[in-house]
Design brief:
mainly alpha, single chain, two-stranded antiparallel ribbon, Arc Repressor Mutant, subunit A, about 100 residues
């Protein structure tokens, strides 16, 4: 499982969190509704805003869908495509794998 280490890894923390959540989705640990954002932030030991940035990245990569007032859900397998590179699987979406901004 991915460890979040904001000081020991050169990768931005929000990307570390996004990759950890994406890995949980890919292995089937999260299959439908994601835990509340505040709960995930506490679990990963990051700020709420960092977690929100991670969720935006996952939405942009097509892995999750957020419904206001209802929560964040794993996107159906057929809908999981990266908008910028639809021929690639979501975990290879450039947003998750590009270098630091």
């Amino acid at each position: 499982m991915h460890e979040i280490d904001p000081l020991g890894k050169p990768e931005y923390t929000y990307r570390q969190v996004a990759k950890a959540v994406a890995a949980r989705i890919e292995i089937g640990k999260i299959t439908h509704r994601l835990p509340a954002e505040r709960d995930l932030a506490a679990e990963f030991g990051v700020s709420y805003q960092t977690l929100r940035h991670s969720m935006k990245l996952l939405r942009d990569c097509g892995l999750v869908i957020t419904r206001q007032g209802r929560g964040t859900f794993v996107a159906p397998a057929a809908a999981r495509t990266c908008p910028t590179t639809p021929h690639l699987p979501p975990l290879t979406c450039p947003g998750l794998n590009q270098g630091d901004d």
